[in-house]
Amino acid sequence: MSAPPEAPSHALIVGAGLAGAATALALVQRGWSVTLLDAENGPAQRASALPVGMLSPHVTRAPTPMSRLSALGVDDMRAELARSLRPGAGWQPCEVDNLGHDPGRWPAAMVRPAALVQAWLDEAAATGRLSLRCGFAVARLRHTEAGWQALARDGQTLVSAPVAVAAAAWGSLALLEATDPALAGAPLPLRPVQGQMSLGPLEGPPLAERPQRDNGVFVPRYQDSGLPPAWPETVWAMGSTYERGMETRTLSEQAHRRNAESLDALCRPAATQLRQALDEGRLLGWADVRCASLDRVPLIGAVPDVPALRRLMAEAGHRRGRLTVDQVPRLPGLYVFAALGSRGLTLSHWGAQDLARQISGEPDPLPPDLRRAIDPARFAWKTERRQPVALTAEA
């Protein structure tokens, strides 16, 4: 890992959604000053603008990295919601009935992510150590002796800081590839995943006692004083689709109908209601693009220095298989927090605290195997270990 600064300093973060806002607060809580940049005209304008999301466990028959991370993240986020927001003004505790591979009734919460983002930013701003700059698109980062510069498309320097964090979800890939072309392809195999939600105003009693989950989540009733004017104050919702490789934010009738098909298995009367609203032109919808990694586990940590890694592997020769992922050289002071997929609510706060501990050089409480599972260098490390010795030596 790259060496942390000797004392809290200044960090620049790109992306003002769940990941970026949570990281900004985590660093500010440790005494850092933070400049948070976002290309949109305000925070939480992309995937974090979801009208309502579900915080619930990720249960598997045998423990997996994601199920273990989920267990950490769900408990952490439930405590954070209770600390940061009032029920009915950004979130609501509930239970969810899982009807698929992990059947059962689980503690959960319905959350409007933008409310949580704003609460985190307000808390960070109250310290005087956060500068939020929206409407500033960062084309790439440039390394200098003093740290990192965030550059606009015209080459103008927007801000400089010793530490930089790419937390722009799917936009993180283009940013990091522009920063270091060696990161393109196998070293950072991130993928866009479009999700579309179908929703509408709740008229009459809810059609289920509590949220239902299988292939998507049906929210029979969510009331939030912060939904208007963009949305009705009380809504039902179904979603979202999971379209790998799609980068569009455009709503489609086909996606609405896929939500209806998934809803058939959860609550047939609600599926009938969805189709009727669609046919009559009354159905509301929301769509945006999430970011997922090749192994569907997030990237939280220091960005690998791929050319330096190749030189290290070449020097190791036949012994390169003994090199561990934590020995991978890193680009000094550059971090990534991305690929949360559909688990942004679960992992944003926990992951931000974890990343802030890494940046600040605090003791690592995470088991080594789970640390390796979320290490952003894991893909580059695996790729270079598989290279024949002769090819590695020529790199």
What would you note in describing this structure?
By secondary structure, the chain is an alpha/beta fold. It has eleven helices and 18 strands. β4 and β5 form a beta hairpin.
Observed structural traits:
disordered C terminus, alpha/beta, 395 residues, nine-stranded mixed β-sheet, disordered N terminus, 32% helix, 11 helices
Summarize the structure.
The protein is of the alpha/beta class and 395 residues long. Helices cover 32% and strands 28% of the residues. It has 11 helices and 18 strands.
Q: Number of helix segments?
A: 11
- Largest sheet: number of strands, sense, barrel closure: 9 strands, mixed
How much of the sequence lies in strands comes to 25-35%
Label the structural class.
alpha/beta
